[in-house]
Design a protein that fits this description.
about 450 residues, alpha+beta, Immunoglobulin-like, 32 strands, about 45% strand, transmembrane, MHC class II protein binding, signal, Lymphocyte activation gene 3 protein-like, membrane
């Protein structure tokens, strides 16, 4: 018996050697995965390489001469989904790249390396994970199936779910199996977003994520959202449905007023899925709650929103102007930022100092000021005003008042002189009129006047 063992060992060492190693790789469906295969023998290239999959034959093969072959089932739209990078061959690396991994790609793969009569075999278990929905884009209110798949499935594994990084608590769901791989749930807004399944077995944990979106009203993006608009500016009240949805009836209505100025404004688009309305110029009465409503087939879809109106209130102080940023609802505002903007003679815009707070006092930096207000998620909106208008008016009023006083005095003086001249002209006219009534008297007056002139001339000559 001992002789047989020694003889068998000698034969094994003298003949072709073979080793087989097992590696496990996981990938999400739709991604790219690399199945490792390395020849540790120095100067392994050129070697004959064969990649195969259990029950599906050859995936990729290269002869030592360099000729390559590809399995027919690995073509997609005229191109191959698998390849081995040639640049790695000289390093003894013959890893297989698989693009656009599918659930059915999961399984056991073998890499066989043949070099100078030696054979090295490696096994790679590829597990493909996927979270899928059926239907893929359900309508709000419909029933949707959520499934966690892993191919091949590890026996005895259990699934936990998270929705938007929050542990999933079944509400209206029906869990189809004990492992939790399949769930049926009513399509509600709070369930939209990222679904992540965690597959647990012993100390191993695998996870896969997919995004669930519902068809219906996509703008506004969520119910009871606050929208911000500057007083006097145009604004679009959103009411947009998913592409491909054409509601048989839809409207935007104001909820807290019997009369809605919205209905005086025009629609934004002629698209059957866009029923948004544009307010040409936002007024204080536009502030309030609105509702976008549409009927799709037999289902009524609604989404509420609130329009918050922002304005800048200016109050004059001695030599300065106080600017106050006021919103009809500031409950979501966490910070106010004032930005000073100036323009040179060429119209080039430059941003100056930045101040914080809902109210600021402007003394020297006249011009354009923009109030930007922020919430927890970032910028909510902005409103712009011209600070120099009020400051300029205060100076113009005083100079205009003094100018007007001088003008009035000058005009009054000229009027008095004009009246005196008219009075004197009237007196002369009356006197001449009286003299013309007595021709003899007029002759006497002229004779006396002529004599006086002669006497004056003679006196000057003497």
């Amino acid at each position: 018996m001992l002789v047989e063992i020694v003889l068998f060992g000698g034969i094994f060492l003298l003949t072709t050697g073979a080793r087989c190693e097992m590696t496990e790789v996981t990938a999400e469906a739709g991604s790219q995965v690399v199945l490792p295969c390395k020849c540790e023998i120095p100067q392994c290239d050129p070697a004959a390489i064969t990649w195969s999959k259990d029950n599906k034959g050859t995936v990729w093969r290269k002869q030592s001469s360099g000729l390559q072959y590809l399995g027919s089932s690995w073509f997609q739209k005229g191109s191959s989904r698998v390849r081995c990078p040639h640049s790695d061959f000289v390093k003894g690396k013959y890893s297989l790249e698989i693009n656009d991994v599918k659930v059915e790609d999961g399984g056991l793969y073998k890499c066989k390396v043949e070099f100078k009569g030696r054979v090295i075999e490696k096994e790679i278990m590829l597990r493909v994970l996927q979270v899928s929905f059926s239907p893929s884009a359900p309508m709000l209110g419909d029933v949707v199936s959520v499934q966690c798949t892993m191919s091949p499935w590890p026996e005895g594994a259990v699934v936990n779910w998270m929705v938007n990084s929050i542990p999933y608590e079944p509400k209206n769901s029906v869990i189809k199996n004990q492992s939790g791989r399949l769930i049926k749930e009513k399509a509600l807004e709070e369930l939209a977003g990222n679904w992540t399944c965690f597959i647990h077995k012993s100390k191993n944990v695998w996870k896969a994520t997919a995004q669930l979106s519902f068809r219906g009203i996509i703008q506004p993006s969520k119910d009871n959202i606050k929208l911000y608009a500057a007083l006097g500016s145009p604004f679009t009240m959103p009411c947009m449905f998913s592409p491909g949805i054409s509601p048989t009836w839809a409207m935007v209505e104001k909820l807290d007023s019997e009369f809605s100025p919205m209905f005086k404004n025009r629609s934004v688009s002629t698209s059957p899925s866009d029923k948004s309305i544009i307010i040409e110029e936002v007024q204080p009465e536009n502030e309030g709650k609105y509702r976008c409503t549409g009927i799709v087939k037999t289902q009524t879809l609604t989404r509420s929103m609130q329009l918050v109106v922002a304005k800048v209130v200016k109050s004059k102080k001695r030599g300065s102007v106080m600017l106050s940023c006021q919103l009809s609802d500031s409950s979501e505002v966490t910070d106010y930022e004032w930005v000073h903007v100036t323009y040179d003679i060429n119209g080039t815009k430059s941003v100056g100092s930045i101040l914080h707070g809902p109210t600021i006092t402007v003394e020297d930096n006249w011009g354009e000021w923009t109030c930007r207000y922020f919430g927890k998620s970032g910028l909510l909106g902005n409103v712009t005003t011209q600070a120099y208008l009020m400051a300029g008016l205060s100076g113009e009023k005083s100079s205009a008042a003094s100018s007007n006083t001088g003008t009035v005095i000058g005009l009054s003086f000229l009027l008095v002189i004009l009246l005196l001249i008219l009075a004197q002209m009237y007196k002369n006219h009356q006197r001449r009129k009286r003299i013309l009534q007595y021709p003899a008297l007029e002759t006497i007056v002229h004779t006396i006047s002529n004599e006086r002139e002669e006497l004056e001339k003679n006196r000057v000559k003497n």
